[in-house]
Amino acid sequence: MMFNDSKAILDDILSRWHHHCKHFTIVRQAGADPMFRMARSSRHWLTEDEVRESEIDGYLMKAVDFHVGEMENPHRAAIYMEARNCYTGRSVWLSPLLPKDKEERAIVIMEARNMLTRRLMTAGVM
């Protein structure tokens, strides 16, 4: 019997995406030297492979961000909520943009996850 891991893979991607977005800053840090602004790593103990992996992960997270941003509400709100729940490991976060009824909310979340999965598979992220 073949087991489909797409739910676990999407949960992992959503968790990493939420972590990536949580640490994003628009404004550059004060005191950053222009000479080093394009440096690949501020931590000198990382290997080249770790730096490349981090860079690739950053591109993947940008792709996820783009595809989530292209979704319409309430599906986009459902993905934001799912990402936060996956990141925290709890299922306690809700969105006011989603239906109050549990069954309707579950349908919207399932539709949003399916839409995002199809988009990410087409983009080559999954």
Q: Any idea what the shape is?
A: elongated
Number of helices: 4
* Class by SSE composition: mainly alpha
Q: What's the number of extended β-strand segments?
A: 0
| CA(first)-CA(last) distance | 22 Å
Helix content: 55-70%
Q: What Rg, in angstroms, do the CA atoms define?
A: 17 Å
Model regions low in confidence, pLDDT < 50 over at least 5 residues: none
The helix/strand series, from N terminus to C terminus, equals HHHH
The proportion of residues in beta strands is: under 5%
Please tell me the overall pLDDT.
79
Biggest pleated sheet: none
Could you characterize the architecture of this molecule?
The chain has helices at about 5-20, 50-70, 75-90, 100-125. About 60% of the residues lie in helices and about 0% in strands. It contains four helices and no strands. The longest helix is centred in the middle third of the chain and has 22 residues, at about 50-70. With about 130 residues, it is mostly helical. Helix 1 (about 5-20) crosses helix 3 and helix 2 (about 50-70) crosses helix 4. It is elongated and about 50 Å long.
Briefly say what this structure is.
It is built from 4 helices and no strands.
Relevant terms:
mainly alpha; elongated
What layout of secondary structure does this protein have?
Blueprint: H1 6-22, H2 48-69, H3 75-88, H4 102-123
Helix pairs in contact: 1-2, 1-3, 2-4, 3-4
